[in-house]
Amino acid sequence: MTLREEVAQLLQALIRLDTVNPPGNETRAAEVLRDYLARQGVASELLARTPDRANLVARLSGGDGPSLLLMAHTDTVLADPEEWARDPWSGDLVDGEVWGRGALDMKGHVAAAAVAFASLAREGVRPAGDLLLALTADEEVGEDLFGMSWLTVDHPDAVRADFAVNEGGGERCVLGDRVLYLCAVGEKATAPFRLRLHGRAGHASDPHAADNALLHAAPVLEALGRFGFEPTLIPEVEAFLEELLGEVPPVEAALERAGAVDPLAAQLLAPLLSATLSPTMIEASRKRNVIPGSCTITVDCRLLPGQTRGEVETLLRTGVPGEWDLEWIENECVGGTRSPIDTPLWRALDEWVGETEPGARLAPIICGGFTDSHYVRSALETTAYGFFPIRAMAPELVARLVHGADERIAVDDLELAVDLYRRLATTPLA
After folding, report:
1. Please, which residues bridge with residue 363 across strands?
2. For 370-401, what is each residue's pLDDT tens digit?
3. Do 379 and 197 form a contact (C-beta atoms < 8 A)?
4. Residue 157's CB: how many other CB atoms inside 10 A?
5. CB–CB of 188/368 below 8 Å?
6. Cα–Cα dist 93/318, whole Å
7. DSSP, res 233
8. Rounded to 5 degrees, what angle do the CA atoms 395, 306, 429 make?
9. Would you report the helix, strand and coil content of the chain in percent, each value rounded to 5?
10. The pTM of the whole model exceeds 0.90
11. pLDDT tens across 294-317, in order?
């Protein structure tokens, strides 16, 4: 069996396991992966806070070089079969693509990492440094600490590494005359909050005798909709612009210059120039005939690495009208971590990109969303990048399929990822 066939078949088996989170039940996937590795002569361990939420970890001893962690999560988001052209848990192989929930996010990555790890072990290849594998639970929710967040606290030595490769990047983007493969070197922080507006409750038949708090929400929502933070160029965005334009323009011109090259470039850049606010939920009266005396607006807020909630609050106080109370939903910001760009792992990835597609370059990006890279960066000081090579699909299509209907991945890209991870494991990262 070729590595291409091996990774495709393993992914099909993983997709056919329902690990939608919640509830997760990731032990199903961990056991399949453990049995797969055992058939290749590779020992692994299941570590779990609760029996149904297991994480798989394994280690291949290597030389005296820096260690490398291949990490990925086995849980997925929900899928509505009514919206799909095929059963979301079919694992069907159609026209060179494996279909199913998690194909892109991120059971395809799980399969490629496992096959790269197993194939090196059975071939007797000694990595340049210790090679670690962590295929974990509970990334899609993460509130109850079953996955990487738990491992870094309760079993840090099982996942401690100098470098790590995770999700968050790898898309091939043709921007003007440049071919760039995006590599996620950091992520924005989540800082969600609620605004509580107050009025006076009453019977809906007599609105003049009450003060409808829901009506107070209109100017607040309007202000949040046009709310703007001062744009700034963080180092990672400057490096992206250098690759895209050959120079770093002033921040006021960055979006226009990027858009002139390709609209996709502007789309990638826009959320990385500042923090963002997105009102997503509103709650007031729960009965048709009761005028609400209070109204709560929930806002998804994402901060650039290095920004603080205090900066957001100061701007809210000056830019959002009316009287309201601010409540931060989480005790502290989650995410917002970054890794340096000038590292041996970056150079190894850039070299692989150039060899795989002559003329192509690696370009840094900051994830707008959250990944488990945050935990290994913050708890273990690991240099973590997000990179899974995707060149068979346009990045716009990938963005639509992740967490969406008809998710699928090209077997060509699965094979490509296996090649990459084998290469990284045998490259001295020093």
Report:
1. 182
2. 899 999 999 999 999 999 999 999 999 999 99
3. no
4. 9
5. yes
6. 55
7. -
8. 65
9. 40, 25, 35
10. yes
11. 999 999 999 999 999 999 999 999
